[in-house]
Amino acid sequence: MTETVGSPAGAAGEPDSGARTKGIRVQRVYTTEGVHPYDEVSWERRDVVMTNWRDGSVNFEQRGVEFPDSWSLNAVNIVTSKYFRGAQGTAQRESSLRQLIDRVVKTYVRAGVEHDYFATDADAEVFEHELTWMLLHQVFSFNSPVWFNVGTSSRQQVSACFILSVDDTMESILDWYKEEGLIFKGGSGAGLNLSRIRSSKELLSSGGTASGPVSFMRGADASAGTIKSGGATRRAAKMVILDVDHPDVEEFIETKSKEERKIRALRDAGFDVDLGGADMASVQYQNANNSIRVNDEFMRAVESDGRFGLRARTDGSVVETVQARDVFRKMAKAAWDSADPGIQYDGTINDWHTAPESGRISASNPCSEYMHLDNSSCNLASLNLMKFLRSDLTFDAELFEKAVELVITAMDISISFADFPTEAIGETTRKYRQLGIGYANLGALLMATGHAYDSDGGRALSAAITSLMTGTAYKRSAELAGAVGPYEGYARNADAHQRVMRKHAAANDLVRTYHRNDVAVHKLATKVWQDGLEIGARNGWRNAQASLLAPTGTIGLMMDCDTTGVEPDLALVKFKKLVGGGSMQIVNQTVPRALKALGYQEEQIEAIVEYIAEHGHVVDAPGLRPEHYEVFDCAMGERSIAPMGHVRMMAAVQPFLSGAISKTVNMPEAASVSDVEEIYFEGWRLGLKALAIYRDNCKVGQPLSAGKGDKSSSEKEVEKQIEYRPVRKRLPKKRPSQTVSFTVGGAEGYLHAGSYPDDGLGEIFVKLGKQGSTLAGVMDAFSMSISVGLQYGIPLEFYVSKFQNLRFEPAGMTDDPDVRMAGSVLDYLFRRLALDYLPYEKRAQLGIFTSDERTAQTADYGSGSTSGGEVDLDTMRSTVESSVSDSRRDEDDRGAGSSTELLELRLGKAADAPLCMTCGTKMRPSGSCYLCEGCGSTSGCS
């Protein structure tokens, strides 16, 4: 999307209808003049019925919603339940994606026209169509508050991330409680630094001893827990930070680890300490993420084993001198115990600060990706990187650049009409116009292009893409400054802002490229930074901040992303929900693309995918070269990515982000305190802004805590390692059966099918061709292999999905009214078996219906009715992928309700993840939070 800023109206042959003195010109990228984006897609009606996976109760139901047929069931469910506005069951309730997109996009366009963003009315219309097309095709998404609020009668809150401030007065502390509560009520989160509050080692003006910040944390924690339990479906998201030189730093470090010991004692005494358990209310500090803000002086003292001074809040004098390494080790030990505190690197954060004359950056939002001035907010949007991967597996850098230009323009427009929870936050945000453009699906993109996540090539491509994104965002920000003016606080911060822009550009020059993909992206990024610096020097910039990497939880599901934020893939085998109920396991569709990028042939790809479906990993996959194993390394499972691999990826992209990165470095249970120290130290050395770790099974307050506490060896609970093997269930001597005669393309034959007494297919025999012929022998052998597979538990629907539509002679007309045409004998046989032995719901998923059912479809097509026993067209939709799940799924695998639970079954051990409070499904990691694949709920990040 190439746009010219500040051009006089009517120049360069552009239409002059509704011309303005200045503004941006918008050229079409995705859309066609005269064709509305809605007219380019195929729409369909679906029923959304969401249930609690644990007890089957219905959580949400809305029938007849309208979406493009390319949208997955999960994306439809989440958008319908989360983002459609209006009371259910009323005419005011939104029922189409068109209504949702129009509600948001038209609000943005009206605000853009009102505030003179566009040179002409024609440019405004093109902008509307381009934005609509990108949202319709899942190219990007705004953060959740935009979908909740924009265009409704509610307050137009567009920001998901907030930073508050608190001073050393009781009035300010009480205001903190109130402001946090208002933000939690709106479904967002906030962070703040408590370091201005004097320590418990200092005196009050009245002569008494101060309580210290940790004591006030108790009140804020209780408030957050109460607001959450007042009807919210997710925990209150909050961050509390303390500077490392605060005299109460050691008490703050140990708050969570001490509570974790309390939880263990309660558990051993028989109390309910699962997440959300009845007895967890007595445990404190569980509603916040804790972080220590370390400075370079402290980290150098750790490096040299020196001493460090803790300073009074009132006059800055040294209250106590401590050994820096002792404090650092306490931080690592507490994080090893309870995953808190995380660490934030103050020196790096403020060295990249664009507005230091307006105040230091002292805090972050709850997930640590937004870092800027106190009492400020940031609205986010994320691009789906897989939408820019061409068919030849190269990254379309030019298209990505144009998409970023359009999205960042829309994000800036939103500040013009946005509402804020407090006037102080609104004033700061309008003055500095902080934005947070980011991306999702990086892990999928790297795998699809044949890059290992933990590799030089993978990091180079990631760095180049991130540099291009931020460079383009700031270039567009400079262009917008020329059209509608720089941010209000720019004048006093101009030198600092330009210095940070030069730092970004210099970091871009240091990127080392390895492959045609990252070479092309990096070349364009270099040009964009050069152009952006020139335009910015002339115009200034519209935004003090432009980019960050958020968890992209719910919006990642809305865009049908395989991976969130900067994360690698969770595992190679995932869960997929099916229309009409149920789910299936599938091999990630990124895997075949990765194998193609690595040069494998179609036959090899199919064999490797089949192996992954059965085993869940690539080790010893047939034909896969060991040097390619690393491409398929994931966050969990066999060959999981090493903790330092996550840190190195963060370090590769951090120099190209205005803000920081929401990500937790997962560590194995066997990791030591020294390992945590190494991660925290390397984060500082490599230039990160923030870092958090999570050691497997370090927290007890989860649904799958380990056994009881220390007991005698005879009493200790031992985790059983169970190896699941298929067991053959033979048919009884006497069993029900049926025989069907058939004709396919003139060839006659017989199908004999034997069943278990409880009505499950157990064997087939096919008579085709003369006895003794090659064809007859092959069919006998084929029948025996299918029969044995059925008796070992391979589902019939697996065979049907494999053999239906198989084409070879004889083929053509049949004498079966339910299967009029067949591509081959096997195509006919398995369609007939499906009709005779599979329930309607499974046949609907496979697209196999009787003649009566097809007639009913035709009769109901116009009305879409599903009542009175009529056929439900939405249920009939086939969503079965060509790459089906594990052919040896046993009953335990079928009991999984999410990708995390499936992974647990594969690994034979539990994963530390909470159950969704809405639908009961086990959540999966997303940045520093958790995401529910079932309903889109998150544990704190929009």
From TrEMBL:
Q: Where is this region: Disordered?
A: 1-23, 857-901
**Membrane-crossing segments per the record:** none
What are the EC numbers?
1.17.4.1
Q: Where is the Ribonucleotide reductase large subunit C-terminal domain?
A: 159-694
Q: Which cofactor does it need?
A: adenosylcob(III)alamin
Query: Mind listing the UniProt keywords for this protein, alphabetically?
Result: Cobalamin, Cobalt, Disulfide bond, DNA synthesis, Nucleotide-binding, Oxidoreductase
What reaction is this protein's catalytic activity?
a 2'-deoxyribonucleoside 5'-diphosphate + [thioredoxin]-disulfide + H2O = a ribonucleoside 5'-diphosphate + [thioredoxin]-dithiol
> Boundaries of each TSCPD domain copy?
732-836
Molecular function per GO: cobalamin binding; cobalt ion binding; nucleotide binding; ribonucleoside-diphosphate reductase activity, thioredoxin disulfide as acceptor
Please name the GO terms of the biological process aspect recorded for this protein, alphabetically: DNA biosynthetic process
- Report the protein's function: Catalyzes the reduction of ribonucleotides to deoxyribonucleotides. May function to provide a pool of deoxyribonucleotide precursors for DNA repair during oxygen limitation and/or for immediate growth after restoration of oxygen.
Protein name, as recorded? Vitamin B12-dependent ribonucleotide reductase
